């Protein structure tokens, strides 16, 4: 009997019922979730290490077993897998239930950790208490809600990362970048900070301390990194703390721009970032839900640029609040700092308007507005602020409000909880200041782009459907136009799902390329001229 799949449907087929092995795998995974749920309701487990291990192994094993059964019998290549027929992945009843459940978890995690068993000044209870043995083994400290979240976050990226690689096993780029985010989440975001805590006060540090730091978390994503308590923590930790402070500064002004120039923002958003890692792995089934409308694009540009302006002003104001004007005590005074920030922003703005204005078009107007707002606000900060205050507000209140609105509500509750509603990159697309800053760099001077071969495009729409950032990729492909968008995170899924090989992620030079627009229009192309120009 022939093994060829002769179906020509681009929309995919309705999903088949799960088989017996998948049903058993679901039961195994549910047993692990049941242990965590029972712990949440303060059911006491006599051996926490054993029961925590059983819970995590059951959840991981059940998920991997289910995924293996889902993909092992399929040929390599992208299928739609009936995503538009499933209630969970097409804004159906189960999609809304999943969104509600995840959102509820985030609300409790951020604002009511006592319901998870957190006890201040005593032994933890509930699910947080269940994680105490693991936390003590890694850092020597009892678990907190953030440790529990970090552990579950890491397990999710590892397990669903394996599932993701099975699904995209035909694409080397997808496999490698998924391994990358799995590595950075496990080591830099989870294990290394815990080991740093265990080293505090040890003989290795000669009784010193290490500031808690996720080395891959860069400002402005790490918006609190330059507050007074963080600076004091760096400087009080000796040479290693000072080195970390220098690294944090270089990350903003040297490392990030250089890597973005070489590889585009994908080096961070799709290869390193934990938020992107979770979106790409556990959020992969929801990528088609991103809004591709022009209205959504306009909202995205206003919201994301507003967040960048806000975090720049907030960080500047907080640093300004703990500086002084006495030159004998401060080598960096309030006035010098504000003048430095204003000068830097002016130089960037002038360079953009002189050399890159045509590339930005309408965005240049938004840049002018944002620049004007920042400069006026800096002047106002200088004249209307007092000791520990910015305007009429305490400097700490600015950070707390930003932390609540952006760090908690946007990135956590909405950004992750609404995967089944808005798609898997709502936070990256609308709220992440790091993505916006690198997007600005990518749009202006990065070598990265997605090249298109318009003559091969059959307008199937797979690329646009599965773009998690809401880019209408097909519109570029139909015209044979290179895709250089500030919002593109370079995940490469548009290329992976293209049945004709129209799209390609590149960093190389443009010299010697055939103009695909000319080919698409049927014009003559002098190939010898291109060959001789190399």
Descriptors:
534 residues; mainly alpha; two-stranded antiparallel sheet; 4 strands; globular
Compose a concise summary of this entry:
With 534 residues, the protein is mainly alpha-helical. The protein has helices at residues 20-40, 48-71, 93-111, 126-130, 132-138, 145-167, 172-199, 228-235, 238-263, 266-269, 274-281, 294-322, 334-355, 357-360, 362-384, 395-414, 419-422, 426-430, 433-445, 462-465, 473-479, 493-496, 516-520, 527-532; strands at 389-390, 393-394, 449-452, 503-506.
Write the layout of secondary structure elements.
Blueprint: H1 20-40, H2 48-71, H3 93-111, H4 126-130, H5 132-138, H6 145-167, H7 172-199, H8 228-235, H9 238-263, H10 266-269, H11 274-281, H12 294-322, H13 334-355, H14 357-360, H15 362-384, E1 389-390, E2 393-394, H16 395-414, H17 419-422, H18 426-430, H19 433-445, E3 449-452, H20 462-465, H21 473-479, H22 493-496, E4 503-506, H23 516-520, H24 527-532
Antiparallel strand pairs: 1-2, 3-4
Helix pairs in contact: 1-2, 2-6, 3-16, 6-7, 6-11, 7-11, 8-9, 9-19, 12-15, 12-16, 12-19, 13-15
Which strand order does the major sheet show?
1-2
Number of strands: 4
Average per-residue pLDDT, rounded, comes to: 81
Number of helices: 24
Describe what you observe in this structure.
The protein contains 24 helices and four strands. It is mainly alpha-helical and 534 residues long. The relative contact order is 0.09.
């Amino acid at each position: 009997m022939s093994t060829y799949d002769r179906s020509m449907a681009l929309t995919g087929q309705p999903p088949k019922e799960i088989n017996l092995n998948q049903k058993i795998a679901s039961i195994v995974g549910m047993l692990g979730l049941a242990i965590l749920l029972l712990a949440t309701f303060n059911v006491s487990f006599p051996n926490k290490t054993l029961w925590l291990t059983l819970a995590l192994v059951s959840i991981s094993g059940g998920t991997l077993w289910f995924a293996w059964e889902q993909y092992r019998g399929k040929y390599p290549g992208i299928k739609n897998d009936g995503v538009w027929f499933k209630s969970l992945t097409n804004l159906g009843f189960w999609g809304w239930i999943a969104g509600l459940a995840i959102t509820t978890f985030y609300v409790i995690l951020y604002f009511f950790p006592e319901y998870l068993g957190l006890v201040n000044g005593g032994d933890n209870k509930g699910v947080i208490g269940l994680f105490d043995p693991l936390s003590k083994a890694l850092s020597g400290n009892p678990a907190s809600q953030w440790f529990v979240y970090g552990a579950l976050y890491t397990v999710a990226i590892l397990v669903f990362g394996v599932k993701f690689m099975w699904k995209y096993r035909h694409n080397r780029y997808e496999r490698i970048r998924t391994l990358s985010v799995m590595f950075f989440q496990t080591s830099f975001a989870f294990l290394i900070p815990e080991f740093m805590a265990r080293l505090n006060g040890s003989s290795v540090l000669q009784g010193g301390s290490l500031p808690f730091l996720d080395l891959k978390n860069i400002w402005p994503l790490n918006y609190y990194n330059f507050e007074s308590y963080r600076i004091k923590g760096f400087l009080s930790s000796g040479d290693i703390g000072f080195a970390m402070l220098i690294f944090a500064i270089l990350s903003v002004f040297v490392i990030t721009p250089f890597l973005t120039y070489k590889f585009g923002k994908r080096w961070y958003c799709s290869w390193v970032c934990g938020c992107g890692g979770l979106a790409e792995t556990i959020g992969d089934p929801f990528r088609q839900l991103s809004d591709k409308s022009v209205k959504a694009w306009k909202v995205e540009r206003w919201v994301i640029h507003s967040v960048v302006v806000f975090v720049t002003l907030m960080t500047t104001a907080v640093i300004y609040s703990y500086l002084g004007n006495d030159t004998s005590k401060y080598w960096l005074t309030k006035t010098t700092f504000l003048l430095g920030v204003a000068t830097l922003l002016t130089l960037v703005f002038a360079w953009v308007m002189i050399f890159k204005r045509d590339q930005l078009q309408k965005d240049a107007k938004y840049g002018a507005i944002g620049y004007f707002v920042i400069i006026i606000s800096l002047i106002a900060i200088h004249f209307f602020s007092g000791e520990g205050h910015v305007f009429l507000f305490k400097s700490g209140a600015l950070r707390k409000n930003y932390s609540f609105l952006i760090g908690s509500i946007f990135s956590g509750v909405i950004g992750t909880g609404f995967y089944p509603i808005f798609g898997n990159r709502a936070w990256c697309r609308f709220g992440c200041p790091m993505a916006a800053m690198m997007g600005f760099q990518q749009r202006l001077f990065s070598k990265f782009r997605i090249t298109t071969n318009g003559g091969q495009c059959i307008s199937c729409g797979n690329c646009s459907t599965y773009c998690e950032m809401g880019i209408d990729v097909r519109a570029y492909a139909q015209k044979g136009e290179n895709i250089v968008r500030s919002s593109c995170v370079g995940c490469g899924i548009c290329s992976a799902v293209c049945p004709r090989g129209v799209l390609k992620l590149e960093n190389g030079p443009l010299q010697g390329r055939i103009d695909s627009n000319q080919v698409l229009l049927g014009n003559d192309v002098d190939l010898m001229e291109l060959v001789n120009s190399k």
